[in-house]
Write a structure and sequence with these properties.
Structural class: mainly alpha
CATH topology: Transferase(Phosphotransferase), domain 1
Number of strands: 0
Radius of gyration: 14 Å
Strand content: under 5%
Order of helices and strands: HHHHH
CATH class: Mainly Alpha
Number of domains: 1
Helix content: 55-70%
Number of helices: 5
Largest sheet: none
Length: 87
């Protein structure tokens, strides 16, 4: 979902390479270019969704909370992940 949101916001995919091997390595090791012209909370949230480690990405409940509240900073989401996964 992070790739889809990033692509909609920037009109470009977060990772682009000429070969499948290059794309695979880009996904694993490179950072996407920053998104501009959107609110900081939305940019932070999309960046969270593109984290390399699965455990660091937001849960679907975080996505719902974000769009209802529109002010869920990315840094606080990471603190919420562990407590939600533990319950």
């Amino acid at each position: 979902m992070g790739v889809a949101l990033y692509t909609m916001a920037s009109l470009k995919p977060p990772f682009y390479e000429d070969t499948i091997r290059g794309l695979y390595n880009a996904i694993l090791y490179k950072q996407q270019k920053p998104i501009v012209h959107y609110s900081a909370p939305l940019v932070d949230f999309i960046s969270c969704m593109l984290q390399k480690k699965k455990e660091s990405r937001p849960l679907i409940t975080d996505l719902i909370d974000f769009f209802h509240q529109r002010q869920v900073p990315c840094k606080s989401l990471s603190d919420q992940f562990d407590s939600k996964r533990m319950s």
